[in-house]
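Homework help board

Subject: predicted structure for assignment chain

Our instructor gave us this sequence and asked us to write out the predicted structure in token form, then describe one feature. I got the tokens but I'm not sure how to describe them. Can anyone check?
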Amino acid sequence: MAYEIPVTQARAELADLINRVVYGAERVVVTRHGKPLVALVSAADLERLEALDAEQDEQVVSSVSGVREAAASPPRERQRFGIAAEHRRPGTR
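My token output:
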């Protein structure tokens, strides 16, 4: 669970909030009008988040590559799976 604090109070307590994040292993959510605005997380947490993003990006690229391979399947495979149409770029025949 993250510690929530209004932005006006966070301005006054920034050094303490940084210490809570770094040394207390806490996550701090800064709010404005009760809604989350930003989060303070440790550098280690940020690295983990970025690694997760990179993993998801790789999965998307892998999925898109698989779709392209399927789209390039021979006509016999298209008939076998009941694919009646294919996308062609404008100006190609």
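Reply (TA_rk): Your tokens look well-formed. For the description, you could write something like this. Residues 45-80 form one domain. That's the kind of observation they're looking for.
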